């Protein structure tokens, strides 16, 4: 797997994690059980820590990074991603915090210090500015993103279903790898 140590710290993967061989994980990264990292993901936990929860999927071409600690920001901004999160293709998440059961639409950008509460749908191409909080239970769209409307019951159910679909897919990939 494409895992590299940085300053003596190596990414830690829980049981059942899939990491595509074309991706790269560097440094202080912890990935929870049954999560998946898909092709061409770049994740650098070099100047702060990164935690990815259980049953979470990070899709193709996504960039994950953190913010350095400094005198003006003594903790910097780690990247924390909760459980049952789907991060769509070609997203950028930088030093932000995502709760549980979130879908980040394709091409979205979430910047330093942003906090995304549980049960949020972020539309494709959305820009979440630094230090913005997205409240639980809503769809957010636009650049910069704005609260569009409350999620309906079907959308709330889909947040968990999307994550479950990717657990099934990563299991298929792991089975194929075991046959080779």
From TrEMBL:
Report the InterPro entries cross-referenced here.
Answer: Hexapep (IPR001451), LbH_gamma_CA-like (IPR047324), Transf_Hexapept/Carb_Anhydrase (IPR050484), Trimer_LpxA-like_sf (IPR011004)
Among the Pfam families in the record, one is Hexapep
What organism, scientifically named, is this protein from?
A: Planctobacterium marinum
Q: What is this protein called?
A: Gamma carbonic anhydrase family protein
Question: What is the gene name?
Answer: yrdA
UniProt xrefs under CDD domains: LbH_gamma_CA_like (cd04645)
**Cited SUPFAM superfamilies:** Trimeric LpxA-like enzymes (SSF51161)
